[in-house]
Amino acid sequence: MTGLTYSLDLTVVWAVIIAFGIFAYVVMDGFDLGIGILFPGFEVGAERDAAMNSIAPVWDGNETWLVLGGGGLFAAFPLAYAIILPATYPLVIAMLLGLVFRGVAFEFRWRDPVHRRWWDRAFMLGSLVAAIAQGMMLGAILQGIRVVGRAFAGGWLDWLTPFTVLTGISVAVGYALLGATWLIGKTDGPAQAHARRMARML
Fold first, then answer.
1. Residue 1 in domain
2. Where are the alpha helices (H) located in 39-161, listed in sequence order?
3. Helix or strand or coil: residue 151?
4. Backbone phi and psi for residue 155, each to the nearest 5 degrees, phi listed first
5. DSSP-assigned letter for residue 41
6. Of 78, 108, 170, 191, which residue is most buried, by most CB within 10 angstroms?
7. Which residues pair with residue 152 across a beta bridge?
8. In whole angstroms, what is the distance from residue 16 CA to residue 49 CA?
9. Which of 28, 101, 104 is CA-nearest to residue 59?
């Protein structure tokens, strides 16, 4: 009985840790993904610089929470990890590529002003791809994954349904709203006014 209680308690503890890591990631990295999604709406120059400066001190550490959630799932629930990952491989790859593009663009837009417009586009695209991929992963898990013999038994494109597309768009819009509210609190002047208008539309 003691061993059973210990196992149950440990499972609950790990589930709470993973849930907290994912929640922290959504809140803390969601707003800078949202800023990237909203980036085309800001004027080139001062407004975009103000938006980037608002997240510069914190954006680097925000993705650590994603590592906590994914690493915790692998360590504590390897069977779930082994089922979810093959079911969402294309989305995981798209998300990681988006995050890499976004990270590189964030750094190089300051160091390479000659090509800043290209880095801005990469930042926007990376943020949007990562956000939609995360939303579609959520949708794929919610709609169910085909499992036979404790292993993924679905197809390569099972994740692509109208429901997952809708959840992908919804998460991207939610991140955009987080980004707008962050900018309202962290900027002033034209950038803040622009963020207020965007928040009302969202």
1. no
2. 46-55, 59-62, 64-76, 78-87, 89-111, 116-143
3. strand
4. -100, 175
5. G
6. 191
7. 147
8. 38
9. 28
Does a structural domain hold residue 25? Answer: no
The answer as to whether 99 is a domain residue is yes
> And the tokens for 21?
């890591």
pTM for the predicted model, two decimal places: 0.88
Q: Looking at the domain assignment, is residue 68 inside a domain?
A: no
Tokens representing 97? Answer: 């590529």
Please state, in angstroms and rounded to a whole number, the distance separating the CA atoms of residues 52 and 1.
Answer: 55
Helical (H) or strand (E) element with 152: strand 151-152
Length of the chain: 202
By CB atoms closer than 10 A (0-12, 13-18, 19+), residue 125 is middle
- For the chain, how many structural domains are there in total? 1
Kindly give the confidence (pLDDT) of every residue in the chain, 202 residues in length, as a single tens digit, with 9 standing for 90 and above: 455 555 567 888 888 888 888 888 888 888 889 999 998 888 877 888 888 888 887 777 777 788 888 888 888 888 888 899 899 999 999 999 999 988 888 888 878 777 888 988 999 999 999 999 999 999 999 998 899 888 888 888 889 999 999 999 999 999 999 999 999 988 888 888 888 888 888 7
CA 192 to chain centre: 23
Q: Which residue bears the tokens 């959840």?
A: 167
